[in-house]
Amino acid sequence: MRWEELDQQPCSLARTLAVIGDRWSLLILRDCFLGIRRFDQFEDRLGITRHILADRLKKLVEHDVLRKVPYQERPRREEYRLTDKGLELHPVLMAMVHWGDRHMADERGAPVRHIHKGCGQAMTPVTVCSECGEPVNARDIRVEAGPGWESAGVLPHSS
Amino acid sequence: MRWEELDQQPCSLARTLAVIGDRWSLLILRDCFLGIRRFDQFEDRLGITRHILADRLKKLVEHDVLRKVPYQERPRREEYRLTDKGLELHPVLMAMVHWGDRHMADERGAPVRHIHKGCGQAMTPVTVCSECGEPVNARDIRVEAGPGWESAGVLPHSS
DNA sequence: GATAGTTGGTTCCTTTATGGAACTTGTCAA
DNA sequence: TTGACAAGTTCCATAAAGGAACCAACTATC
């Protein structure tokens, strides 16, 4: 499978990876969630080369995850902001950060804390079932073919 | 920043990406969660080249996300299974699949349904606060420096 | 009015990673 | 003794990323 074919797969994970599944896109998005908006800020913080940064920002704009917003005219300058579609990637980032905190942190502990404005406490993300509200983990879920399924593969067993 | 330096960063997202942040690792893990365990099954389903597959499996084993379990002797054959650390990546995968279902699905809808064994219903993952149990989204969270922070960057503002 | 600085890129060339196909190793079965 | 199977490894061609320099449209300074 070539990289460009990814978003044609009947798999939402593959299609998501077509947008954010490379080295840099998630680090760019992390910085977006921290309030970074301008080309040179991304460059400074990430240590990414300029043409790869330009390419990734362009791709994220094409996928409607970021949008360019002018902040001055003459010379025209634009900054990059998360769209609603981009903001909805927050659970993905939170889940990854939480896993990193648990399994990849050094002796000093988690680098950042997430404060829930609603209750004012340092929180970790918990994934719950949309229907019953109970926490779910891998073993609580059974997978079955949905409406968009085409038999381009077979579910080997319902884990 | 080089790829190998990623896991030295004081950022749990970067460290997580050092493990699962490449083209193939998440697709391999998707298949692991579907019950795939053997080298040739991964190869058939993913269309990945053999030496990249071997490399990624090795890396995932080194990071204790998968482990090799012998299933026959003479000739010795081993399969790959998720460790507990690997199983804890489930929320990451669920969040990505859910985002793909919402934003990247074609007209036929989501390719797979996730049934919560606990309540028997088709569910979507909802991220809630570990402290108060309320659903959280990007705008509900304020970020502050935690114990593992070192000033290798500055939080630009508390989004 | 020439020179330098700022922002947001692009171009060119080198290094690294990936794709594709063939080869290897240990074993069993015909 | 030939063939098949599972799980890799090796070799070479192509694609992607790193690094540095250059460009364009202004503004500010000397």
UniProtKB/TrEMBL annotation, chains A, B:
Protein name, entry field: Transcriptional regulator
InterPro entries cross-referenced by the UniProt entry: HTH_HxlR, WH-like_DNA-bd_sf, WH_DNA-bd_sf
Species lineage: Bacteria, Pseudomonadati, Pseudomonadota, Gammaproteobacteria, Oceanospirillales
Domain of life: Bacteria
GO MF: DNA binding
Key words, A-Z: DNA-binding, Transcription, Transcription regulation
PANTHER family xref list: TRANSCRIPTIONAL REGULATOR, MARR FAMILY, TRANSCRIPTIONAL REGULATORY PROTEIN
HTH hxlR-type domain sequence ranges: 11-108
